[in-house]
Amino acid sequence: MYVTDALRLISENTARYAGGVYPKARWADIIHPPKEETRTAEEIVNYMKSRIKSSKLRHNEYYCMQDIYDELYQKSKAGGKFRNLMRIITCENNIKLAYRNIKNNTGSQTYGTHFMNIKDIEQINVDEFVEIIQRKFKNYQPKAVKRVEIPKERSDKTGPLGIPTMYDRLIQQCILQI
Q1: Residues contacting residue 177 through CB under 8 Å, at least 6 positions apart
Q2: Distance CA 21, CA 40 (A)
Q3: What is the pTM of this model?
Q4: Which of 15, 20, 157, 162 has the highest count of CB atoms within 10 angstroms of its CB?
Q5: pLDDT value, residue 25
Q6: Per-residue pLDDT tens for 18-75?
């Protein structure tokens, strides 16, 4: 469950529960609350944000990327200019972290135009996988996206959704992280 999904659920249920207070049982499947009493929508969202942030931080530290991110952040705050970011983007730990972040995403089970999902990539040796991604970065050309029509909320209409290939998602995630 993502924070945006929680916010959507909260806004949908605001009319049902006066004052924005939700019974604990309503959220039991989404969050494991540490308290017995009911919590406000704001408390639930803050709790979810802290869980997501601590999880990402733990992953960043596991792959030794947090120090690099902190250095880049400090340099950007000081108005520094960046050169040779591709060295960081294509480093082995950044690629492994991108894989982990994509794997945790529910969309990773969706097939793109190459008919691959995260389960297919799991079968590849880790070193071989890192090498494949690094090679793709040398002359990266995004592949065509799979177009799917999805229903819009509270409407009979549908909207387009583009689903990139799994390798394109991983490459985009590597860049996004830096």
Answers
A1: 65, 69, 94, 97, 98, 101
A2: 5
A3: 0.63
A4: 20
A5: 41
A6: 444 444 444 444 444 444 456 677 776 666 666 555 556 667 777 678 888 888 889 9
Taking only the tens place, the pLDDT of each residue in 121-164 is 888 888 999 999 999 999 989 898 888 888 888 888 999 988 89
Both tokens of 144, joined, read 């065509």
Q: Are 175 and 140 in contact (CB under 8 A)?
A: no
Contact 92, 130 (CB under 8 A): yes
Instruction: In whole angstroms, give the CA distance from residue 118 to residue 48.
Output: 25
Cβ-contact 95, 174 below 8 angstroms: yes
Residue 84 · residue 68 · CB < 8 Å: no
Contacts of 133 (CB under 8 A, 6+ apart): 90, 95, 167, 170, 171, 174
Phi-psi region of 80 (alpha: psi -120 to 50; beta: other; left: phi over 0): beta
Distance separating alpha carbons of residues 90 and 138, to the nearest angstrom: 10
The two tokens of residue 87 are: 């060295």
pLDDT exceeds 80 at position 8: no
DSSP characters over 25-41: HHHTTT---SSSS-EEH
Amino acid at 67: D
Rg of the chain taking only CA atoms, in angstroms: 20
